[in-house]
Specification:
The structure is a single chain. The protein contains 9 helices and 10 strands. The protein is mainly alpha-helical and about 375 residues long. A 3-stranded antiparallel sheet has the order 2-1-5. The protein has a 3-stranded antiparallel sheet with strand order 7-6-8. The longest helix is centred in the middle third of the chain and has 109 residues. The termini are far apart. Keywords: Coiled coil, Cytoplasm, Metal-binding, Muscle protein, Nucleus, Transferase, Zinc, Zinc-finger. Its EC number is 2.3.2.27. It is an enzyme of class 2 (transferase). It holds the Pfam family zf-B_box.
Amino acid sequence: MNTMDNLEKQLICPICLEMFTKPVVILPCQHNLCRKCANDVFQASNPYLPTRGGSLTSGGRFRCPSCRHEVVLDRHGVYGLQRNLLVENIIDMFKQESSSSSKPAPERKEETPMCDVHEEEKINIYCVTHGVPTCSMCKVFGAHKDCEVAAITSVYQSKKAELSDGIAMMVGNNDRMQGIVSQLEEACRAIEENGRRQKTLVCERFDQLYSILEEKKTEMSQKVTVEQEEKLNYIRGLTRKYGDHLEESCKMVELGIQTMEEPEMALFLQNTKPLLKKLAEASNTAHLDKVERGYENMDHYTVDFKKEGLALRSLDFLQDDEDEDEEDEDGEASAEEGDGAPVVSAAAPASVKPAAPQPSPSSPSAASS
């Protein structure tokens, strides 16, 4: 019974000091408690929280009586702890073994096997040499007469103790394995959470790049729009001046034709002199600006984003061996994001070809011709 006692010690609750009562719960520190005992400890540590029969809306905490590890519970209390089905099964097996060992002796005698060679002899000794139970006749006259034998009761007790120790060792190993499984499951949850967080940070960094590109596109487009409007306004104004001059010239032509039809020579000569002066003035366009060749060209607003495209395609996560100072190259805005944000290499400044010298829209080289 010493071996059974050793196994029974492994199944004692540290609270009630009795064998675990199902259901048995396992704590995060891998120690076991009866659920009832765990609930008693929880209620004693959290006297102001409602019981499970009430409306428990927040969890509490208590310390493991074996290692003093703090156990944090959710709103389900001790009913949210995982059951240790392995320990519960071992308790059932232990109780079955205990009940079978307490059966009356006559029943055990009826189950004593007989020797296969000497059918009337009971197996009552153990052959140490071959490691099998046998009968006394086999030792005296049979196949085991030259073998070392021992009393079957002593071998039974030693083997039973060995088996009990093996079971106890397996219980400890299974507890450790269950702890490893819990750690691995926690690692999976941590990996999933960390992956979601890092993907969110990466998306935020790319959104920043999108914002910078949109701002730069608006700024550069505005530069083109400003010069476009200045040139259009100047050309439209010049068009109106030439139109007014043309209208005035047409009136002079009509007046000249009417004068040509005058039959009276004296009156004709009186009107001709001022008319010729007006025609000469109307024919002079020196006061009107002339548009320089190529004034309508806007090709000086040319960009080349090949380097920037290569830089964007080479974006990647920083390696562990890279200098941390490279993170500062992203600017103060990137530094304000805080630790843990993924850092990507910044693209080179946009290459814009310098604008060719252009005449001022207000006075585009007004050449007199």
